[in-house]
Amino acid sequence: MSPKKVLVTGSSRGIGNSILEFFSNEEFIPIGTATSSNGVEIIKEKFSDNNIAGHAFELDLNDAESIENFFKTMKEKDLNPDILINNAGIARDNLMLRMSEQDWTEVLNVHLTGQFKLMKNFLRGMLKNKWGRVINISSAAAALGNKGQSNYVAAKAGIEAMSKTLAREVGSKNITVNCIAPGFIETDMLKDLDEAYLSAIASEIPLQRLGKTEEIASLVKFLASDEANYITGQTVHINGGLFM
Q1: How many domains does the chain have?
Q2: What is the per-residue pLDDT across 175-216, written as a single tens digit (0 to 9) for each?
Q3: Please, is 214 exposed, middle or buried when counting C-beta atoms within 10 Å of its C-beta (0-12, 13-18, 19+)?
Q4: Cα–Cα distance for residue pair 140/122, rounded to 1 Å
Q5: Could you tell me if residue 130 is inside a domain?
Q6: Distance from the first to the final alpha carbon of the chain
Q7: Would you say 35 and 46 are in contact if contact means Cβ atoms under 8 Å apart?
Q8: Which residues are known catalytic residues?
Q9: CATH number of the domain enclosing 227
Q10: What is the pLDDT of residue 171?
């Protein structure tokens, strides 16, 4: 059985990097993306360290030309993914009354419109093969709301709703579509926050700690496996009990 091709967007660091590492073995052909050439080099180094023949490309989901160039390259290299993991994201936080239209648009472009374009493009190959996995990384914020993140929350809620619709459209072709909604996870984004603030957050979580990127990656790998054949159209929350 030939190895499955796995595309993980936004995989130079954080959750995406851990997900890519879980798929960096002989069972898969891992494909990672980053918005900068430096990020691409980080991904290539990971493949080199693990002696894996993976691929790394630049992709900016807020740039239509970047997306088209990425699609062209993927087609030329015959890399239509069997497993698509939409992880790339950005934050442009502000209270709604202070939020610029640009900040609103950029976040929706990356988290919602960009993911729509990726799914639409790569689903053709999955439909042809009559097998596929689409896993979209959402957020607990989509269910809870989060002050200062109306753009981010709207985009994440949108991807969850869109995923349910897509699951209905492609389920008969043995393609599953699911979302994972992490809570507070130990990533670079949280490293700059005050320790007392992080401790206060952890105290509100029943498991009394923040999550690890590896725990998200483990759930992604399960949803991509044959053991999850009968799971589709779901948003799986992983947050230590923060949201139930």
Answers
A1: 1
A2: 999 999 999 999 877 776 678 888 888 899 999 999 999 999
A3: middle
A4: 27
A5: yes
A6: 39
A7: no
A8: 152
A9: 3.40.50.720
A10: 98
